[in-house]
């Protein structure tokens, strides 16, 4: 995820303080990985330096001064270009799980047990996401569906690999 583009996109609705950006980011996108304040301010500093945001005002408070950021025309163009650019599909050709299966076979360990353990972990996470999806709003349901579809594909791969494990072992050891 591009944190800078996400923060720029959030600024399109109007100027905001760093605290407000973090809170909105966390509500919309950061349920599983909230943004750190330091990351917000370092990103805003970089966007400011690159002319994609400007300081719209500074307010004095009990603590440090609070800067209010606004997106510039260049920032709007940058977000527009980012949104129009398709994301590169990730084919997962270098999978950690595949590597573990091959190494288990190469070292004489039980690859079937590894696959069973991984299947159980996938199913556990799928149950957790399904429960979260039931109680979530539409945005949370959609992000859970995205994760569930990927987990389902992984499960299909686990089943296929389990079915072909003996043949894979022969090829790996040859």
Can you walk me through this structure?
By secondary structure, the protein is mostly helical. Helices cover 67% and strands 9% of the residues. The protein is built from 8 helices and 3 strands; from the N terminus they run H-E-H-H-E-E-H-H-H-H-H. A 3-stranded antiparallel β-sheet has the order 1-3-2. Strand 2 and strand 3 (66-71) form a beta hairpin. Helix 1 crosses helix 4 (73-84) and helix 6 packs antiparallel against helix 7. The model has no long low-confidence stretch (mean pLDDT 91).
Report the span from N to C terminus.
Answer: 41 Å
Largest β-sheet summary = 3 strands, antiparallel
The gross shape turns out to be elongated
- The residue-averaged pLDDT reads 91
Low-confidence stretches: none
Q: Rg from C-alpha positions?
A: 23 Å
Oligomer: single chain
Strand order across the biggest sheet?
1-3-2
Helix/strand-derived category reads mainly alpha
Relative helix content: 55-70%
- Helix/strand order, N-terminal first: HEHHEEHHHHH
Number of helical stretches of at least 4 residues: 8
Instruction: Please count the beta strands (DSSP E, at least 2 residues each).
Output: 3
Question: What amount of the residues lies in strands?
Answer: 5-15%
């Amino acid at each position: 995820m591009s944190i800078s583009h996400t923060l720029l996109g959030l600024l399109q609705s109007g100027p905001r303080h760093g605290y407000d950006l973090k809170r909105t980011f966390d509500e919309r996108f950061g349920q599983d990985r909230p943004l750190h304040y330091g990351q917000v301010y370092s990103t805003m500093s970089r966007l400011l330096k690159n002319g994609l945001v400007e300081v719209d005002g500074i307010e004095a408070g009990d603590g440090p001064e609070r800067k209010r950021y606004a997106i510039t025309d260049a920032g709007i163009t940058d977000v527009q270009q980012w949104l129009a650019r398709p994301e590169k599909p990730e084919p997962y050709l270098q999978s950690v799980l595949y590597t573990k299966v091959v190494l288990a076979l190469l070292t004489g360990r039980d690859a079937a047990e590894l696959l069973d353990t991984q299947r159980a972990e996938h199913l556990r996470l799928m149950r957790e996401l399904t429960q979260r999806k039931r109680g979530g709003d539409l945005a949370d349901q959609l992000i859970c569906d995205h994760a569930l579809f990927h987990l389902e594909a992984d499960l299909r791969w686990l089943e296929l690999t389990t079915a072909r494990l003996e043949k894979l072992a022969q090829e790996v050891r040859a």
